[in-house]
Amino acid sequence: MVSQSFPDASTEQVDSALRSAEDAFPVYRKLSGKDRARFLEAIADGLERDAEEIIRITDNETSLGVHRLQMELQRTAEQTRLFADLARSEEWLETREDKAEPNRQPLPKPALRSQNIPIGPIVVIGACNFPLAISVVGTDTMSALAVGCPVIVKSHPGHPATCEKLGALINEAAHATNMPAGTFGLLHGASHRVAQELVEHPRTKAVAFTGSLNGGKALAALAAGRLEPIPFHAEMGSLNPLFILPGALRERGEDIARGYVAAVSLFAGQMCTKPGILAAIESPELDSLLAAAYANVKVSQPIAMLNSEIRDNFEASMDSLKGHAKLVSISDATPDRSRDEAVCQLFIANASCFLNNPNLRTEAFGPGSLVLKAKSARELTQLGQSLEGNLTASLHAGQGDNALVAQLLPILEGKAGRILWNGFPPGVVPSPSTHHGGPWPATTDSRHTSIGLFGYRRFVRPICRQGFTS
């Protein structure tokens, strides 16, 4: 992979970009929804027009492959048009009105009218694993622009040329649709300094971040420690547990094994919803499922990871896990290190070890997963209760599992933002019903989604007018 070099933004460039965004805000927020929709639709048109060039640049930087990137680009264009429709309809205002009741006793009631307003310049720090859909032209940027907030994006150092191309495309669309100068800006920054300055800048009104737990925690502390603390919306680590109940094991264990290994390996496990653990009660049926899973792992093929740093981090996490769990299956294929390839690996441990060993709870960003064997239904529910926050949790159930489902489901609803029934979590549909969030440490605010239509709610606040006649 070859990537063009882009210098880090200077402190002066950070300040200039946010001053320009602040200057643009009063004008941009007052534009009609139709005008902002035209802007977003021009962006979507540009994505489709330049699709071949964008995919070539991105594949060169990430090795995600043309087919995967074609799907991601289509998704990105579709979600951009989804937010264009939101801008046009102005449903994001969520207007509520109470009529005046001047004769009400014992006190008159004034007229009240509440609706959302945009909060100001937004900083977006996007994902490494979705260079199109969760990056420069991703949900964060498009949802903020739809509701009237200017956006400054910090490019991801893993795909800076992709970011540069997409940033130019947005600015071209802004010029073609007469958006005010400063509505959008792109800054490069491999150095942590750039992200820190963007978060701490007094003109930044909120931040959207997708990345590691350590990075998210550090930036969240900066956002909270400002003279004027600001919302910091981070999507970080998640184990995305699968709970396989006895009825499901009896009825379709081999099918679950195939689906599990496929989910762990999908795009080299570089998915924020990759299942990091599978939990089930000890039984002959579980042994059969595991035998099928091990066999599927053995014949799985190496997959290129995003870059050498991510591959090295994955391999280090697997080496660390060997000190706390047993490696039970690994692909027979030999990865090509020159292509940053990795292979699927499965580990196993007792649920009791997981309950007492924090080293087993670390997310492995790559094609690795941990099987946890519980001795009883009680230990399985204890395991669920011990989990930290997750983006997803999955329940596989069958005949005779109703009582255990009734125990586990409320527990998992308290631990995750999305519960899957007899399914596997990789893949998120950017739709109105989607919720891609969860309790800490999955995100910094479980009330909000970073994918889907309602992602805009991170960038608005309600204002109430009382006593106004119009």
Describe the structure.
The protein is an alpha/beta fold and 470 residues long. It has two domains: 11-236 and 443-466, Aldehyde Dehydrogenase, Chain A, domain 1 (3-Layer(aba) Sandwich), CATH 3.40.605; 242-421, Aldehyde Dehydrogenase, Chain A, domain 2, CATH 3.40.309. It is built from 14 helices and 17 strands. It has helices at 11-28, 33-49, 51-62, 66-89, 139-146, 160-176, 192-200, 213-225, 246-265, 284-298, 308-321, 351-356, 377-386, 402-413; strands at residues 96-98, 112-118, 122-125, 151-154, 184-187, 206-210, 232-235, 242-244, 277-281, 303-304, 326-330, 341-342, 345-350, 368-374, 390-396, 416-421, 460-466. Strands 11-13-14-9-8-15-16 form a seven-stranded mixed sheet, with helices on both faces. Strand 3, helix 5 and strand 4 form a beta-alpha-beta unit. Helix 3 (51-62) packs across helix 4 and helix 13 runs parallel beside helix 14 (402-413). The longest helix is centred in the first third of the chain and has 24 residues, at 66-89. The radius of gyration is 24 Å and the shape is globular. The N and C termini lie far apart (59 Å).
